[in-house]
Amino acid sequence: MASSSHFHYHKDHKDDAMDSAFDEFFENPDIFPEPKERKKRVFIERNREDGHEKLWNDYFSENPTYTSKLFRRPVRMNKSLFMRIVYRLSTEAPYFKPKEDATGRASLSPLQKCTAAIRQLAYGCSADTVDEYVRLAETTARQCLHHFTEAIITLFGDQYLRRPTPEDLERLLYMGEERGFPGMIGSIDCMHWQWKNCPTPWRGMFARGTGEPTIVLEAVASQDLWIWHTFFGAPGTMNDLNILD
User: Contact, 216 vs 238, CB < 8 A?
Assistant: First the structure.
């Protein structure tokens, strides 16, 4: 006859010590650190209305502080062209249209947004450099630049960002022939941009007598200051004479 066996579990003092330690761990509130309080976002009152008023008085009022000649320095274009861009963007681009917030306070003006974007493009500066004068934050300045480039492509791309048409080529050839250069559609020029992070194996190909590696920006412009061709990336050892070879 088969006999059944039974396993008997005997609790000893080691189990009691484990249970007491376990209970003490969960009953002690100091063991669990309190969750850290989330840092609140810092709000800076930049007085954007004062920024618009200062910008207007400096360049756009009836008696501006700076003349039209000095206007070209911060934005690299004349005032009439700048105002044409601002007008088109403020009437046709949603981001640049004047708005009001929930309290009825006016948002940043189209002048402030366009000035911030164009200054970044004109000088290649970082977004936070326009904060003190135009009175907008770094993130907003980047948004202005992003929306500005999109709006320029949308509103002016069909007219300015295009290939020359047969009519354009015929007109350019006529202009060149009238000036004594038959067959010319424009004047080519090159400028060198220093390449700070040029790889060491490429330095010999991109460096000239100065020793600093550069990249060539090539452009072809006509008499009416239209740029019909650009190319960026030629090695710095090239110049205006051999870059077309």
Answer: yes
With beta carbons less than 8 A apart as the criterion, state whether 90 and 96 touch.
yes
Q: What is the mean pLDDT of residues 214-231?
A: 90
Q: Is the pLDDT of residue 24 over 70?
A: no
Q: What is the pTM of this model?
A: 0.72
Quick one: CA torsion of 93, 97, 100, 105, rounded to 10 degrees? 130
In angstroms and rounded to an integer, the radius of gyration of the C-alpha atoms of the chain is 33
Would you kindly state where each structural domain of the chain is located, as residue ranges? 48-160, 172-235
How confident is the model over 149-182, as pLDDT tens digits?
Answer: 999 999 999 999 899 999 999 999 999 999 999 9
Given pLDDT bands bounded at 50, 70 and 90, which one contains residue 37? confident
